[in-house]
Amino acid sequence: MSQNSGCLVNAGDEVRVGQVIMVVEVPAESGAVSLEVPASARMTEKEFVVREAEKDIAPAIHLTPSPSAPIHLTPSPSPALAALTGEGSRASVPSSAFVPASPSVRRFARELGLDISRVKGSGPGGRISDDDVKAHAKEVIQSPKTSQFAGYAEVPDFSKWGPVESQPMSRIRTITAESTVKSWQTIPQVVQFEKADITEVEKFRLASKAAVEKAGGKLTMTAILLKLTAMALKEFPKFNASVDMKNNQIIYKNYINIGIAVDTEQGLLVPVVRDVDKKSLTQLSVELGGIAERARLRKLTSEEMQGGNFTISNLGGIGGTSFTPIVYPNQVAILGVSKSAIEPVYQEGAFVPRNMLPLSLSYDHRLIDGADGARFLGWMCKVLEQPFLTWL
Ligand code: CAO
User: What residues act catalytically?
Assistant: First the structure.
């Protein structure tokens, strides 16, 4: 430090933001640099706050250059409350710079995922303190609008392009939306497809229908798949398990409860058939008819829709050649069933008409590998084709 260097203030002095407090001069040969801020570069407090805020923001911005287009600034979604409120992911960066708050308060708000420009300041001139940020966070959390998945992006004003009508989501719709988002966000899913030859099973179904009807049930493909799936879950216990990432555990269940997706006027409901492995096909047919009817009449209790280990979703009665169902949260697989059809199948040197049932198995790749999925579905197809194999 040269003799011209020195402190311009004394210990205990009160200084303004931007005021020069020290000058340091280094020898010319080492490329003398004065740390004194030139008059032209001095800032007002507001400018300083803006600059500091921009500094804070900088690391959260990704530059995405494109050869032909200008650079786009994309603010990173902040973690924590941002997921809850969507505030942190909003493109509020430039406006927040003019809000009266110190850099540390801004940083605090950003760490919580809050948009500082929405925080009401209680200090002089609306200055925002840490307590104001905390109060705003509390308000956001307690707001009835804030649900576990409220971090959705705002939708555009569709009325700009034509007449619209908004309706509140029903409870069933909201639960379905939240459950599918949870599944989509937390379960890495793979779908395996197969076609099962159900020609023989269909003959059996038609031949046994009357007997099941006498017992008060309807022998449908869903009931048969319910029985078969219970057998498959015993054969492949991984598919009857749950993944507990928090405790690094796989939970294998020693009971077989299967959810059945039921299409109702109010939306999708998934009642659970309990202890499927302990019930006969006739019992299952009666029970399935009963819960599907109660679902449509909205007579199911919430208890009846809990505790499923695996789900069957049969869209075959409605149509479609294949689809990819979504695994229910806390389960690891779901069987999708599409519409069966008579198809030409090449057998022993000739095409023969066979009744083919398209199946899709979506599974959680955290627990189930591709080979497991292929084996599970392959096993189901084999048993559907030759049901007596399971007697051996
Ligand atoms: N292929 C061809 N026909 C099929 C079939 C299939 N996969 N599945 C059912 N059918 C036929 C049945 O044989 C029945 O025909 P008949 O009236 O001539 O006997 C008809 O379709 C209607 O069946 P059903 O609905 O009465 O009986 P089910 O036991 O097979 O299905 C249920 C019960 C509750 C699964 C079904 O009614 C339903 O709601 N399905 C929709 C499920 C759904 O919405 N899934 C999507 C959820 S999101 O993943």
Answer: 365
